[in-house]
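#lab-general

N.A. 3:47 PM
ok so I finally got the sequence cleaned up, no stray characters, all 271 residues accounted for. can someone with queue access submit it? mine expired

B.Y. 3:52 PM
send it over

N.A. 3:53 PM
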Amino acid sequence: MNFELSFIPNRTDKPRDSGITMMMDKGLSLRGVENFVEASGHLTDVVKFGFGTSYVTPDLKQKIALYKEAGIRPYLGGTLFEAFYARGMVDDFLRTLDKFDLDLLEISDGSIIIDHDEKCELIQRMAKDRTVLSEVGSKDSGILISPSKWIKMMSTELEAGSWKVIAEGRESGNVGVFRPNGTAHTLLINRIIAKVNPNDILWEAPQKNQQVWFVKLFGANVNLGNIAPHEMIPLETLRLGLRGDTFFEFLPDDYAERLKQVNDDDAGEED
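B.Y. 4:20 PM
back already:
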């Protein structure tokens, strides 16, 4: 960092298993990737080429190479896997990964229904040679999944070989573990983390209020995904208590209480 500050929470180092940040690339240009890596590559662990964008984005091989050179692991979005699966082209999907030299992949069933036993078999098969992320939750807000089913699916997918399970939030942040207005499904999340290790979960949290909520709940090293390229540095300041929303999270209690008291006194004098 550029200078010293006390009471900054420790962040895990890359390559890391917790405190992961996943950026969502929805079509950055080659120059855009270069600029992103220069500004935020040090904060980025994985990059997802969102939904089916990798099918139409230009310079895909070059983009992948730039991310890898920066120590970032790129992968194709889960919706693209579903597009291959729906067409009976799973082997073609694997050949596509080989073609682009990708060792990280996502298996999801947010847009289509895949028998869960079959999904776990796919995870187990692909985890033998690659690192697998699997996603739980539907992209359809009308499909409600009980907490017990969330827990069962996450647990069995981890047992099958998933590195992390992704908790669906979509790029909009209004489905899955979030309500339509973007607030967290607190009861659902609390039920999940009572049974599933939070370090094994990557929470999709595209909105700032969602990122704040997870940092306050889990601390600086929570796994967060679907972060926009221009939000990577702002998110890191949330993780470190260097933004108003989390300013007091990592200060000692006596500091926080004293500063809050000063603010209250100042407010009283103005009144």
